[in-house]
Amino acid sequence: MVKHYLDEAISELQELISITKQDIQNIQKADHSCVDEHTKKKNELVRKFEKTKSQLDSELIKLAQANSGTDLASVLSDEIKDKLGELRESLEILQKVNKEYAKSVVVVKEFYDSLLKTMLGAQNGASTYGDGKNSSLADAEKLLKLRV
């Protein structure tokens, strides 16, 4: 069962990595057509991974309890040890890709914020538009509700 859960967890992580890389490419192309679909997929994959990881943890705990007094590393096969290394590597890759994705998102958000300020003439935190009332940039953002 440990091998099964490891394979499943690695597969889920690889799919998350693939979708996130696609998202980065889409940001670079200014293509937002897949944002909702990818967000739903990634949220589902994260939930699946958390469940799989919990099941893996339970199996490892059972294995450790069944072999009390013995180092868990000595109980695991070389194949399982390799899979654990692959899981760790996949987590590290996902972390790196997520950092790259976050940087792209921040750049886009900053661009939209500056564009919004320019469009609405927001200066010193306030602008006049529409009915002549003063409004902050935050109020303008509420009106436009940008998705990034």
Model description:
The chain is built from five helices and two strands; from the N terminus they run H-H-H-H-E-E-H. With 148 residues, the protein is mainly α. It has a two-stranded antiparallel ribbon. The longest helix has 43 residues, at 78-120. It is elongated.
Brief overview:
It contains 5 helices and 2 strands; from the N terminus they run ααααββα. The chain has helices at 2-28, 35-66, 72-75, 78-120, 137-144, and strands at residues 126-129, 133-136.
Give the tally of β-strands: 2
Structural class: mainly alpha
Radius of gyration: 23 Å
Number of helices: 5
Task: Give the N-terminus to C-terminus distance in angstroms.
Answer: 40 Å
Strand order of the largest sheet: 1-2
Mean pLDDT over the full residue set:
85
Describe the global form.
elongated
Percent helix among the residues? over 70%
Strand percentage: 5-15%
Q: What's the order of the H and E elements? A: HHHHEEH
Low-confidence stretches: 124-134
Sheet of most strands: 2 strands, antiparallel
